[in-house]
User: What shape does this take?
Amino acid sequence: MVLILNRMKAIFLFFAVTFWVIFSAHAAPKKILVFTKNGPGYVHDNIPTAVACFQSLGKAHQIQVDVSDDPAVFTESNLEKYQALVFTSTNNDVFASDAQRLAFRHYVEAGGGFVGVHSVTGTERNWPWFKMMVGETFSWHAKFQPFRVLNIDAAHPSMQGVPMRWEKEDECYFGKELYPGIQVLMMHDLSSLDGKQVDLVNQHSGSYKGYFPAVWTQKFQGGHVWVTTLGHDKANYQEPVYINHVWQGLKFVLDSVKKIDYSKAHSVRYDEGIFVQ
Assistant: This one.
């Protein structure tokens, strides 16, 4: 009897392992949409290299990467297949209709993921809900120069491998209408700027003194959000330290998103206020 039971256990284990191997091999890869639309105004020349960066990350980590600058992709049925939407250096108004805005909002409310890069904070400046979702809206940036960015939450999953004191050339971004729900992960060290625009720095840093948010995350209205204001120079997207920075942010969001469930999307209009349970 013991021999029979052992054989049965062995057979069960064999089939369980075989099923797991087959399932793992054929599991659908995660999918992201990299969106690059810009409204009228300044358009960053880093967008092609940023797209190439995310495509390379997709190949390295078995993630399907779709790329578009067409806002017609924003329908609920289309967005449902993505675990994350990446807005890389988008700017100004990027949606063509309020129906597209509502589809985007429903995706976030349904538990979707959002990764914002660099000038994403200048996107949809007239839509309060979007600005709260991103975490702020663009105010001003200091001229491109070397300065210091400090990692103030090294234990956060998206800060893995990110320098504690990151000396880099970039634009030190400032925002207004900061949303109180963000969790700041990295901050600009304003004392490391060259001092030639000190009056503007003081003006745009608002109630902050000496430091200003540079990278943050939040769970917003059901969705999972991660934003970095770093990444102005197109060369950044070929630099290992910066590539790891955006990869860790994307990975954190992908790990956070479990399912897109539109039954949790409660808003009727795109421009409703936030929902508080």
User: Anything to note?
Assistant: Helices lie at 2-26, 47-60, 76-79, 98-109, 128-134, 198-205, 240-256.
